[in-house]
Amino acid sequence: MRQLTALSRLFKSSLLVPISHFSLSLSLDRSSAMESRVFSRATTIAHVRRPLRESHSNTSCSFVSIKPIGAVGEGGNLIWGRQLRPSLLLEASSPMNARKDSLRKVMAAASSPAEGSDSSGDGKVAPVGFFDKYPALVTGFFFFMWYFLNVIFNILNKKIYNYFPYPYFVSVIHLFVGVVYCLVSWTVGLPKRAPMDSNLLKLLIPVAVCHALGHVTSNVSFAAVAVSFTHTIKALEPFFNAAASQFVLGQSIPITLWLSLLPVVLGVSMASLTELSFNWTGFISAMISNISFTYRSLYSKKAMTDMDSTNIYAYISIIALIVCIPPAIIVEGPQLMKYGFNDAIAKVGLTKFISDLFWVGMFYHLYNQLATNTLERVAPLTHAVGNVLKRVFVIGFSILIFGNKISTQTGIGTGIAIAGVATYSFIKAKMEEEKRQGKAA
């Protein structure tokens, strides 16, 4: 009996050993499978996150690489034939490290001198253009060229009238040379020609007609009287502008502006009474020119478009040329064909006659273009003062070049008129600047 009991215990123990061994093996396999799933998930996560890390490769951030399962890495520990990887433990904290590294890189880039900046260091300094480096000098050059071209135009224009007194034909030449210049500029694309439609043409025709009339009557006055006297009469143009704004447009003109115009009227009257070259043709033509340019300004405000000033002036010149040709043919055509051209060529020669007409047209177009370019670079007040100074320069140089004798009263009247124009321009520009600032606020 004892032997049977012993055998039974021995039998049970022999059975339990394989079972326990089997259970231990089963538990190990389960833990192994769980570990494999954990590693496989970690590997999957690592592969999913790898493109994100690769997309940040430009930030030069270092990440711990994931090695295949089963490879023994540096510093790895083997348990049950598998490696406990420090890389997997670091993987959870690597995004925070990556953000810190990226932030450090961005801060370093922000604090370092950028390329093209003026900071010292390894950054490259972009070259500064002459126009940007010396803006005041460039603006002064524009003013100088504006005055220079205008003075040369007036002197050469008057010299032509001394041997070729045909202002209608000369006015056509002025516009014709300017139109050719514009066409050539459009051909080479400097500037690019803006398209024209019927609506814009209807708006520009009144402007061009007034421009043509004012230009022709100015030249008639230049041919009839001294250049200095014509410019003295044309100093009344602000008076006509104020009158048109008050009585045509219905705009309220402050009393200060009207008071500033009184010296202009007084000065022109004093100069006209004692002007040695005075005649009614020159005086009336200059007054018609003032009225024409006043209405040109009014129509120009109605014809405001998105087209740039260079293209608008080109189209106005083309229309004005067409307007000026018929009066020139009707008024001066027969005289020109009979003896006008022959007398001029006999006096100065064909080459000088043609070159004088060409250059006077070029100077006329260029000084008008320079006046527009100068206006775009400075404030209205600066341009208004510059316009007054231009008239002073023209009057002064014309007296010196042609030796026109003026009386003391004419000189005083001219000075009073110019001072009045300067006062008017200052007050008007100041009011426009305050109005613009009020709208901006």
UniProtKB/TrEMBL annotation:
Membrane topology: Multi-pass membrane protein
Subcellular location: Plastid, Chloroplast membrane
Keyword tags: Chloroplast, Membrane, Plastid, Transit peptide, Transmembrane, Transmembrane helix, Transport
Sequence ranges assigned to domain Sugar phosphate transporter in this UniProt record: 138-425
Recorded superkingdom: Eukaryota
Gene Ontology cellular component list: chloroplast membrane
Keyword Plastid part of the UniProt annotation: yes
Transmembrane region(s): 134-156, 168-188, 203-227, 239-260, 280-299, 311-330, 350-367, 388-404, 410-427
Family matches, as InterPro entries: EmrE-like, Sugar_P_trans_dom, Tpt_PEP_transl, TPT_transporter
Pfam families: TPT
One Gene Ontology MF term: organophosphate ester transmembrane transporter activity
DNA repair as UniProt keyword: no
Protein name, per record: Sugar phosphate transporter domain-containing protein
